[in-house]
Amino acid sequence: MASQDKKQTHIHILGICGTFMGGIAAIAQSLGYRVTGSDQNVYPPMSTQLESLGIELTSGYDPKQLDPAPDMVIIGNAMSRGNSCVEYVLEKGLPYTSGPEWLKHNLLQKSWVLAVAGTHGKTTTASMLAWLLDYAGLRPGFLIGGIVQNFGVSARVSDTPFFVIEADEYDTAFFDKRSKFVHYLPRTLIMNNLEFDHADIFKDLDAIQTQFNHLLRTLPSQGKAIYPADDAPLVEVIKRGFWSQQETLNGDWTYKLLERDGSQFEVYLAGQLEGVVNWSAIGEHNVKNALMAIAAARHVGIPVSVSIDALREFKSPKRRMELLGEANGVFVYDDFAHHPTAIKTTLAGLKAKVGDKPVIAILEPRSNTMKMGVHQHTLLESLSEADEAYLFEPQGLGWSLKDQASKAGRVCFDSTDEIIATVCAKAQPGQHILIMSNGGFEGLHQKLLSALKANA
């Protein structure tokens, strides 16, 4: 469709303020479509980003927003039957699709797609990979589930063939229960790791492995999968059927830490030293992410030495061990960690960085899987690297966090105000406070920083 025709084509997006759907909106507008959208509550930061692009937003799901009818309705996966706009679309026979399916037909089929899948590290690794390609002059398009600080946005369209995408295993839409990533048509595929997660849609690990098997079935014979050789669930997926090329971490690619916190490490390919990375990221998990990003960049022709240079200028995405500020010698960080493994590795990375300085963890179990209690028996152990840990029990939790905290000798609160008061009462210069939640945590981050600054 010519750009002039697209400008006459109206796309309306239901659930537009999520990071993924907001990215779809920005991409559609860049391709020349007229884009509008709605969400239950139009909220920042995505609402701010979309409004700055001139995209008209509606708060709520009154079906009046669909009259006159748009040419296409893109329905986000947070929408379900019973939603007034969804029911209107079905009743009136309006054309509709999902975000992943729309992206496939309008962009990805024409692109060399580099996809990053896995339970942990997708946003960070996809951000690294997009930056490596950009640094090397390939100027990729991308759609990533976080603000990439090297670019300042979460999505963009490019006139080059390359497109980097965070490949989420969550379901596509109320009418398509396949994982989003089966629509993405990767030619280069990173699979970081695989554990049980998303208990609200997957009954067990095997169900997730089945979706990863479906993903591998879309990888062409000259495509390449990059994954850790020692990740048993991923190895099992490979054994179920594999028709492409592959390279492995802790196989083809290895590393040697030169600094305990991962801020400096050597890169090896087939046992040969390729160079040394010095960068601002920390944690051995990020070292592993970096090696797989380097391998993926090499698949599109970028020399390892160029990727190593690029990583020196890489900035971690927002909400991934992001230093929010310092108040009277106390450092406050924000991290998206929402799974015991991610919590443990993130804390280990921070502890390795700060040495004998005290690390204080503040955690809100907010993901659907956490709320269902799937990880309740391993959650407290994941905080073992923290010198102190304070937990927040949100409303709607399907199990008693207080009971588990009591057994582990940790403190659990019902109120974020109580957490702030407790932390401020014990604040000492040199402390490093890590706040972990995949939500807003009732504004705790900035409230705590302000309280610490007033606590002189």
Characterize the biggest β-sheet.
Answer: 7 strands, mixed
The CATH first-level class of the largest domain comes to: Alpha Beta
Instruction: Report the end-to-end length measured between terminal Cα atoms.
Output: 62 Å
Instruction: Work out the helicity level.
Output: 25-40%
**Bulk shape:** globular
* Helical segment count: 16
Uncertain segments are none
Fourth-tier CATH superfamily name of the largest domain: Mur-like, catalytic domain
User: What's the β-strand tally?
Assistant: 23
The tally of domains stands at: 3
Average pLDDT over all residues: 88
> Radius of gyration over alpha carbons?
22 Å
Strands of the widest sheet, in order across it, are 8-7-9-6-12-13-14
- Structural classification: alpha/beta
Give me the CATH fold name of the largest domain: UDP-N-acetylmuramoyl-L-alanine:D-glutamate ligase
CATH architecture of the largest domain: 3-Layer(aba) Sandwich
- Share in β-strands: 25-35%
